[in-house]
Design brief:
Structural class: alpha+beta
Pathway: Siderophore biosynthesis
GO biological process, one term: siderophore biosynthetic process
GO molecular function, one term: N-acyltransferase activity
Helix content: 40-55%
CATH class of one domain: Alpha Beta
CATH topology of one domain: Aminopeptidase
Pfam family, one: Acetyltransf_8
Number of strands: 16
Oligomer: single chain
Keywords: Transferase
Radius of gyration: 24 Å
Number of helices: 18
CATH architecture of one domain: 3-Layer(aba) Sandwich
Length: 481
């Protein structure tokens, strides 16, 4: 790794960091080896020391396994479109040696070229100088495009701010009304690709200016496009709305070879459940009392400081090692959760039975999960991974726990279907899911396990437990009023 991180190439003049920002954003658009990282590590001191130098709680973490490195850049604003805002400087860490060094544009591109060379071994050796020059030119084009849009729409934002006079609610209403009028104007006919690109760029601009939430704007775009389904270009619109991934032509390293990458469809944010995947606190989110069994089950979001030592102990139990396979060090487990909780594609929860922490489960958005590669995933599919800590049958209550989770998930309007990939070795867990309404499909071969694909629809669950439908419906109405 030293040849990439410790090489002291002079940084390219980059005033406010816009070149570096454009390079990083384009790399993250074209390649997926990155995540968000939350907070400061408690069990990895070299990393913690470097993270403390930033005043921000979030970092973008970009992995470069070909060089044994990871790059961390303080994250000011995360964009669903991919136009993130950073606070430089960032740093690189040697994953094996735990050595931390600074990182500039040139060094970042050296790491990126090494990674791309591994991804495309059929390419001839990439000329570093030529590749860097090309990447910088691409970044320059992106900056020009973004600047033109900002100059075009910035006066609109300033006018709204002046009219709102500090009233954030009024500012939101003015901007929402204007954005919808803009969509109506630009979408009198189905959009061309360049027009759609402009819409996405505007969404990210209004988002990073804290005018509107990107997800809310993307939902408006989705609904406006949906209105064209019955018209002449309906099939093309249907494909645009339904496709899980969108292919894009690779730009950043196209001087070395032609390549195509795919990105997740941002329009599927219409089906994103913020309530499930980014809870705003660690307070209890659901409570269910089963009178016949005298069992109370509650669910709360995972609390990293409070729960990490507990689940670390759970995961080192014999039955967890066999199936769960997360018997890692505290350092590795902390890194996993700091990424998972920050990423917003899945979230971890702790469940209590009669006031005692008993189970851990993860909710994941299947359209963005590896499982989505193994079946025709729908954007409204959500899945769970469940681990019950006690082995004592008097404390496990697997059926009641699963019913509680399923009821709560089906209360969320974004959830259309529950999916799962239970290991073929976990026969008891699979049978428990069947008992609460899941239906086993076929066996799928995943990289880490052989699993039964399984589904559950609301009506399947209520067929099993019609007596609980009124309870769940009443809770849903109370929560959404």
């Amino acid at each position: 790794m030293e040849q990439h991180i410790q090489h002291n190439s002079g940084p390219i003049a980059d005033g406010d960091g816009r070149v570096f920002t454009a390079i990083v954003n384009q790399y993250c658009l074209e390649f997926s080896s990155w995540t968000r990282y939350m907070g400061i590590s408690k069990y990895h001191e070299p990393l913690a020391k470097a993270l403390r130098k930033s005043s921000l709680d979030l970092h973008l973490k970009i992995n470069f396994p070909a060089s044994g490195a990871a790059v961390f850049i303080p994250l000011v604003y995360f964009s669903e479109i991919g136009n993130h805002v950073f606070q430089f400087p960032g740093f690189a860490i040697d994953v094996e040696k735990d050595e931390v060094t600074g990182i500039d544009v040139t060094q970042f591109l050296e790491l990126a070229v090494a990674e791309v060379q591994v991804l495309y071994p059929e390419w001839p050796p990439i000329d570093q100088a030529l590749s860097s020059s090309h990447a910088l030119a691409i970044a320059g084009q992106k900056i020009i495009c973004h600047t033109a849009l900002e100059e075009r729409f910035f006066p609109v934002i300033e006018r709204f701010k002046s009219m709102a006079m500090g009233d954030q609610s009024l500012l939101h209403d003015l901007a929402t009304s204007w954005f919808r009028q803009y969509l109506n104007g630009i979408m009198e006919q189905p959009l061309t690709q360049s027009e759609l690109d402009e819409v996405f760029l505007l969404v990210s601009f209004l988002g990073n200016q804290k005018i509107l939430e990107e997800r809310e704007m993307l939902k408006d775009v989705y609904l406006r496009l949906q209105s064209f389904l019955q018209q002449e270009h309906g099939e093309a619109i249907k494909t645009l709305l339904q496709q899980r991934r969108v292919e894009i032509k690779g730009d950043l390293f196209s001087c070395a070879g032609q390549y195509v990458r795919s990105v997740y469809n941002p329009l599927h944010q219409y089906f994103y459940s913020s309530k499930l995947l980014v809870p705003t606190s660690n307070a209890q989110v659901y409570y269910r009392y089963f009178a016949q069994e005298a069992v109370a089950i509650s669910i709360r979001p995972f609390d990293l400081e409070k729960d990490l030592p507990m689940v670390h102990q759970w995961f080192h139990s014999d039955h967890a090692k066999t199936i769960w396979k997360m018997d890692w060090s505290l350092k590795a487990l902390e890194d996993f959760y700091r990424t998972l909780l920050a990423e917003g594609i899945s979230h971890s929860y702790i469940g209590e039975v009669n006031g005692e922490a008993t189970f851990n489960f993860e909710i994941y958005w299947a359209a963005r999960d590896i499982l989505g590669d193994y079946y025709d995933v729908l954007p409204s599919d959500y899945g769970t991974h469940l681990f019950i800590a006690p082995t004592d049958k008097q404390k496990k209550f697997p059926s009641l726990i699963t019913r509680t989770i399923v009821e709560w998930l089906f209360m969320q309007p974004e959830v259309g279907r529950l999916v799962g990939e239970g290991s073929v070795e976990s026969r008891a867990a699979l049978m428990n899911k069947v008992q609460v309404g899941f239906k086993l499909q076929h066996i799928i071969e995943m990289p880490h396990k052989k699993a039964y694909l399984n589904f559950c629809l609301r009506e399947w669950y209520w067929e099993k437990f019609p007596q609980n439908h009124h309870h769940s419906l009443k809770t849903f109405i109370n929560e959404h009023n």
